[in-house]
Design brief:
This protein is α+β, with helices and mostly antiparallel strands. 43% of the residues lie in helices and 16% in strands. The protein contains four helices and three strands. It starts with a helix and ends with a strand.
Length: 123
């Protein structure tokens, strides 16, 4: 093989072995959907004292005394109050904790029922 043939063969090999350049397609980052939030709503009744509700809010939700008082006032005056806003799984847990908190021990003639709590989607 002469020099021209060798150069030609080397060039052909380089073309075959050269990595193929592909148009780089940039993938969009995955879109993450945020889980909708829910309000944990406590309803007013005549079976629980404000002190009971304040204590329950402080124990279950970790609210300060002032915040628990404000929510209790809202429950008493408006008929319902929002104890917290969070994702569905935690909201369901908190609702069940309210329901299982028990009856108000300070009312002798109470019907021995738990507070009524529901979930409402935000927005």
């Amino acid at each position: 093989m002469n020099d021209v043939e060798m150069a030609s063969a080397a060039a052909a090999t380089a073309v075959v072995d050269a990595p193929r350049k592909r148009a780089q397609v940039k993938k969009a980052p995955p879109v993450t959907k945020r889980e909708p939030n829910f309000n944990v709503v406590i309803w007013n009744d005549n079976e629980h004292t404000p002190e009971y509700v304040i204590e329950m809010l402080m124990r279950i939700f970790g609210h300060s005394g002032a915040k628990a008082y404000d929510i209790t006032w809202q429950i008493d005056r408006m008929g319902k109050g929002i104890a917290c806003t969070c994702h569905r799984e935690l909201a369901e847990l908190r609702r069940e904790q309210i329901r299982s908190y028990g009856a108000d021990y300070s009312i002798a003639d109470a019907q021995r029922v738990s507070m009524r709590a529901t979930l409402e989607p935000v927005g």
